[in-house]
Structures are given as structure tokens and as C-alpha cells.
Amino acid sequence: MLTLPISVAAQQMMMICRFVSRSPWSRRFFSSDADRRLANAISEIHKEMESVFGEPPASGLAGSAENHSVTLNFNDSQIRSEGCTENKLVSGLTHIGSQGEAQMVDVSLKEITKRVAVASCKVILGREVFDLVASEQMKKGDVLSVAKMAGICGAKQTSNLIPLCHNINLTHIRVDLSLNPQDFSVDIEGEAASTGKTGVEMEAMTAATVAGLTVYDMCKAVSKHIQITNVQLEHKAGGKSGDWRRKNR
Fold first, then answer.
1. Which residues pair with 194 in a beta bridge?
2. Which of 6-20, 30-44, 131-145 shows the highest mean pLDDT?
3. What average pLDDT does the chain have?
4. Proportion of the chain in helix, strand, coil states, percent, rounded to 5
5. Quick one: which of 13, 31, 63, 162 is 20 to 30 A from 218 by CA?
6. φ, ψ for residue 151 (rounded to 5)?
7. Choice among 35, 176, 187, 217 that is catalytic
8. How far apart are CA 223 and CA 219, in angstroms?
9. Cβ neighbours for 29, distance < 8 A, ≥ 6 positions apart
């Protein structure tokens, strides 16, 4: 058995009823034609409440608030099942505290292991921009070389960009960019490695993303239709969760 509060609209209707019934002028009010119209209006409110809750409110205008709560019957197993699902969902979000607040994960008790992560993204250039990049005719210079350096620098700054990321001592960063003539795009792959207590997925994804943003910056003067797409983790290794690899890779 579970008792739920009624809707805001219903609460407002009941407050009107209680206010009218408890006011010192309420009885005098109901002795004139105008007051009968008010009584009719209150009657309509009662009917509306009956249509919502399936039964009229407590008899008399001065019914208590307790008489206007809604009682619903739920299967106990259903409540337990739904509660478990919600708790499981919340418990899986390590950056959310017990009160729902944001928190930085304490990794002091974790084991030190070798951590590796690989991420990728694609920058769709279009035929015109693709040909200019391939022939190194962009006014800003060598697009792929500049984007490669930007990706490496970006990975080093991950904890400054993502608030709850740990400041990690990276042991390796790799950023590769290749032209794809099939869809006139640049395929980007970023890899980060560290020996420590937390993973490097965000560093790998930051490397790939910043490289993609740099490609856009180098080419935006020619086209505004450039798209940065498919930013995703491809592989991670190390730590408590072990190895993971994207299936379609």
C-alpha cells in the first residue's frame, strides 16, 4: 500500500475549498444569490476531483488534507524490482555521490597497472577541401602535421579541460591522421598510455577530438560544411574492468 500526493492543480482546488469553509465570512457568504453561485462553483470543483480520483472529496467543505491523498496499490515485488534497477543505475555512475552531487573518484586504493586506450574520429571535408589538403595547398599550412601536434598537446591537457578527470602522468601519446578518398575525409586515431591507478580513455578521446577540431580550424576558410563525426572509444586495456574492444572494429 502506497500513499502518493495529489497533483498541484488538485491541491489548489482543495485549498480554495478549505479557505472558503474556514473563513469567518463564509456562512454569511452563502446566504445570497452570489454565494449560491460560489457554492455551485465549489460543487464543480468536487466533480472535477471525482473525475480525477474516482471518488468525491470528504464530505463538507472543511475536509482535512489527509482525506485528499491518493491511495494506490502496487505489487511489492514490482516496487522492489524498480528500486533495485534505479539503485543499480546510480551506483554505476562513479562521478555521482550518494546525495546526487558531482564528485571526483578516489583512486588511492586502486592497484597500479599499465593502462592503454585508443579512440578515433572522422572529419568529413568534402571534395574541394579534401583536394586542397591532399595537395598541401591550404593557406594555413600542413593540415595533418599541425593537427597531429594539437592532438598530442590536447591529451596532455585533459584534466584541465574535463573537470573530474585525474591529472595523469602519461607515458605515451600517439595521434595518426590519414586521408580517406572514399568519403573525402580525414580518419583520426588517438592513443594514450600510462602506468597508474586510473584509465586513459579520456586522454585518448581528447587527443582524437582536438586533432579533429584543428583540422576544422585549418580548413574552415574554404568550407563551413566540414563535419567532425564518430568520436568514440575503440579499445582500452588495464585496470579492474580489464580489456574492452569495440565489436565493429
1. 115, 170
2. 131-145
3. 78
4. 40, 20, 35
5. 162
6. -65, -40
7. 217
8. 7
9. 20, 23, 35, 38
- Predicted confidence (pLDDT) at residue 89 exceeds the cutoff of 50: no
Q: Look at the block and give the residue holding cell 482543495.
A: 14
- Give CA–CA dist 238/203, Å, rounded: 15
> What is the b/e burial string over 48-83, where b = at least 16 CB atoms within 10 angstroms of the residue's CB?
ebeeebeeebeeebebeeeebeeeeeeeeeeeeeee
**Which residue type does 205 have?**
M
Which SS3 state, helix, strand or coil, does residue 34 take?
helix
Looking at domain 116-239, its CATH superfamily turns out to be: Molybdopterin cofactor biosynthesis C (MoaC) domain (3.30.70.640)
Residue boundaries of the structural domains of the chain: 116-239
Active site residue 217: yes
- Helical pair 201-219 and 143-156, crossing angle rounded to 10 deg: 150
Higher per-residue confidence, 128 vs 2: 128
Beginning with the edge strand found earlier in the chain, give each strand of the sheet holding 244-245 in spatial order: 170-180, 185-196, 113-124, 227-237, 244-245
